[in-house]
Amino acid sequence: MRYWLFLIAKLMGAVAVFASIWYGMEIVLPEPATIRDFKPRKFGQDLTWTVAIFAYFLAAVGTFYVILLDQRYRCRSCLRRLRMPVNSGAWDKMLRIGTPQVEYICPFGHGTLNVKLVQFHGGEKPGWREHDDMWRELESLSSGSPK
Ligand SMILES: [Zn+2]
Predict the structure, then answer these.
(1) Distance (Å) from CA 127 to ligand 1 centroid
(2) Nearby residues for ligand 1 (ion, Cβ within 5 Å)
(3) Which residues form the domain of 34?
(4) Residue 77 lies in a domain
(5) Of 48, 72, 96, at which residue does a domain stop?
């Protein structure tokens, strides 16, 4: 729940920023010249306004892309960035060893995210596996192993 609320908060923040930029552009940029009662639309008629709209569109789409990409690599429990990428699989021995993939973990052991680098079936969602406390599991493995 907290994970989705954080995403919604980031999106709302971006919408607020770009809405204020839009209103700023409405105020700062001059109106195009009018001929009697005919008032041409700004977009497509005025070069400054059209370039500003294109720049605005690119900035908005890029920001939303970065927000979604950032959200993808965050822990679902504590919202921290996932770290310590571990590669597995092999490109040249895909059928024997497995498909190439990268596994990220939460530094506090809440879970792991498995991102497949080869996607045979189109866009596959990354696999999030939740752990109770991964570090405690690892400590119990190392303490129980023979030396
Ligand atoms: Zn976490």
Answers:
(1) 15
(2) 75, 77-78, 106, 108, 110
(3) 2-72
(4) no
(5) 72
Please report the sign of the dihedral spanned by the C-alpha atoms of residue 125, residue 129, residue 130, residue 136. negative
Predicted TM-score (pTM) of the model is 0.65
- Dump pLDDT digits (tens) for 8-17: 999 999 999 9
pLDDT value of residue 35: 67
CA of 44 to the centre of ligand 1 (A): 48
Q: What is the CA radius of gyration of the chain?
A: 24
The number of distinct structural domains making up the chain is: 2
| CB atoms closer than 10 angstroms to residue 127 | 12
Could you read off the pLDDT of 88-129 as tens digits, one per residue? 988 888 888 888 999 999 988 899 999 988 887 777 777 899
